[in-house]
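Hi all, posting the design record for the shared folder.

TITLE: backbone redesign
STEP: 1 of 1
STRUCTURE INPUT:
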């Protein structure tokens, strides 16, 4: 078959992946989206192995598999995430880099199977490589979990209620298994065993779906009722954010909140960077007119706590000045004031200014905006961050998960975070691993506020729930992407986080979509895009922990070291090509007949 036809068939996989993707796609297409690319790989592998057995040089070198896969994944990246372009033309590099990583993973699978595995065993290698890649792609400086295959079901969470056990990696495995099963059925359509293949493919597609629908129908939400107000102030990040005074922005938010407040309201959730002041945390609340204004507002609602985003700074001792994210203040020589870190921060405010202000610094940073990849080794990169408003450059992060705990009248405490205000008056923050908050009673509600990009990281959200969060709040500003699929995809992914952890979610987005999500992933009171709004809902604070919340991405954690093992095995074979053949001759498999060259039975 001519290479141009193989290329066009591969390209159709990228188009099908986009056509299946949230939020404008048709989700069932994900079950056949990879089939064209897998068929091309299977066809090329068969040709190569036949030529290897005949001792002839392959006419389809492995580089072509990379190009076929790269064209498919590049089309998927561009069509599904083109909206990144609104922030910077450098998005082109993101498309190319992500597609190259995906194509490289697919090529390694092909190359490993060319020399070691064939038939059904090799599809296990595909799953190991791909899930290992997705897990790795969640945990390095260039992390981009946006296109994890399991996210394809974000708009149909009733199909994947078993994410409470597997998380999104179970969805990725399901997608791979369905595509492989349908490929095998297609190859054997005229063979005698086609009926068996059809039954197997139907089971792989429909049994997980049926189990999820049953779970969705029988699951009953659990927990204590908590009234939450969500504010969507609708401040234009391109114009108003820089022209509107911080106090005016805060007043707009408070006026919206006032319209929905009741005596039962416990929490007011506001967007990321709602307080548009740059403050030193040790000087809060006195250095911030907006914080004092909020505290004054809450005197009429003493039972309520406002969860607000802010850009903040913390001082860093001179001995830690070489760490990633540490900045230098020009014109200062005193070592205690020269170095500092900038943070994307969430604070929990009450009516009493004497109460400690718990703080969470964003833990999962956006590459190229809040963190420059590998800036720890290449320090000059820290100055090249994309300016999307607020504090830019490599930010300081909070290590590990965090949990706030608030009573109706007492102070708000934090695990895994810190406190603002006078250092001498701050309580000692608890580690995230602490079993519980001291003196926690029935009126105490524990929650975590997930900042923007953090909500795409399923394992991070699960770790917050495992640390004790009974409710989840999401504070974000998606206005940078304008009215594109970007903000809709981001909102849809939160539905999967609700299912994985069986936690209700209150989502506050500056320009939309703000909403409430129940423990089964159903959306309530979704607001329109680009309009001010305020909504109120009673959510259930659940204390029970799911399997996924407790153990995290087991599939990814297991597949990453396995993929490294297979990769090492492949490179060893490449260096010592005759060693494998000698081993096969010395230790033949008695059940397989004569040993076949370059393959395992």
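Okay, here is what came back for every position:
SEQUENCE:
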């Amino acid at each position: 078959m001519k290479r141009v036809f193989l290329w066009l068939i591969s390209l159709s996989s990228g188009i099908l992946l986009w056509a299946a993707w949230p939020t404008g796609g048709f989700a069932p297409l994900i079950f056949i989206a990879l089939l064209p690319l897998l068929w091309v790989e299977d066809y090329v592998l068969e040709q190569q192995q036949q030529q290897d057995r005949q001792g002839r040089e392959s006419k389809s070198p492995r580089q072509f598999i990379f190009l076929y896969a790269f064209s498919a994944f590049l089309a998927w990246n561009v069509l599904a995430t083109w909206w990144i372009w609104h922030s910077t033309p450098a998005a082109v590099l993101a498309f190319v880099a992500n597609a190259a990583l995906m194509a490289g993973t697919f090529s390694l699978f092909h190359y490993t199977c060319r020399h070691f595995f064939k038939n059904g065993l090799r599809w296990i290698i595909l799953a190991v490589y791909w899930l290992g890649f997705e897990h790795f792609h969640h945990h390095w400086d260039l992390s981009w979990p946006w296109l994890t295959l399991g996210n394809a079901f974000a708009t149909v969470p009733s199909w994947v209620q078993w994410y409470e056990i597997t998380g999104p990696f179970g969805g990725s495995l399901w997608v791979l298994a369905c595509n492989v099963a349908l490929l095998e059925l297609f190859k054997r359509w005229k063979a005698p065993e086609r009926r068996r293949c059809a039954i197997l493919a139907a089971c792989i597609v429909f049994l997980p779906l049926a189990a999820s629908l049953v779970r969705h129908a029988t699951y009953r939400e659990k927990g204590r009722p908590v009234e939450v107000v969500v504010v969507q102030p609708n401040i234009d990040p391109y114009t108003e954010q820089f022209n509107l005074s911080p106090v005016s922005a805060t007043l707009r938010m408070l006026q919206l909140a006032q319209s929905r407040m009741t005596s039962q309201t416990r929490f007011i959730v506001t967007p990321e960077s709602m307080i548009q002041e740059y403050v030193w945390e040790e000087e809060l609340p006195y250095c911030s007119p907006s914080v004092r204004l909020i505290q004054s507002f809450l005197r009429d609602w003493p039972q309520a706590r406002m969860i607000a985003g802010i850009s903040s700074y913390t001082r860093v001792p001179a001995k830690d000045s070489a760490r990633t994210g540490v900045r230098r203040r020009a014109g200062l020589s005193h070592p205690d004031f020269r170095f500092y870190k900038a943070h994307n921060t969430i604070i929990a405010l009450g009516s009493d200014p004497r109460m400690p202000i718990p703080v969470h610094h964003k833990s999962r940073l956006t590459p190229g905006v809040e963190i420059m990849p590998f800036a720890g080794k290449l320090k000059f990169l820290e100055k090249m961050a994309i300016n999307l408003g607020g504090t830019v450059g490599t930010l300081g992060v909070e290590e590990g998960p965090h949990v706030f705990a608030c009573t109706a009248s007492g102070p708000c405490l934090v695990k895994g975070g810190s406190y603002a205000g006078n250092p001498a008056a701050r309580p000692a923050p608890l580690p995230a691993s602490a079993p519980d908050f001291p003196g926690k009673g029935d009126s105490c509600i524990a929650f975590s506020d997930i900042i923007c990009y953090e909500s795409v990281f399923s394992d991070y959200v699960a770790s917050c729930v495992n640390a004790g969060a009974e409710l989840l709040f999401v504070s974000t500003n998606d206005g940078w992407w304008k009215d594109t699929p970007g903000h809709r995809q981001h909102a849809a992914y939160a539905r999967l986080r609700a299912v994985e952890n069986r936690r209700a979610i209150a989502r506050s987005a500056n320009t939309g979509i703000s909403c409430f999500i129940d423990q089964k992933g159903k959306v309530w009171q979704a607001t329109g895009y680009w309009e001010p709004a305020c909504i109120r809902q009673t959510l259930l604070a659940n204390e029970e922990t799911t399997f996924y919340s407790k153990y995290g991405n087991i599939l990814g954690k297991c597949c990453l070291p396995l993929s490294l093992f297979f990769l090492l095995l492949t490179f060893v074979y490449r260096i010592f090509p005759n060693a494998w053949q000698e081993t096969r001759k010395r230790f033949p498999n008695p059940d397989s007949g004569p040993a076949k060259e370059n393959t395992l039975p």
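COMMENT: The first helix runs from residue 3 to 20.
Let me know if anyone wants the other runs.
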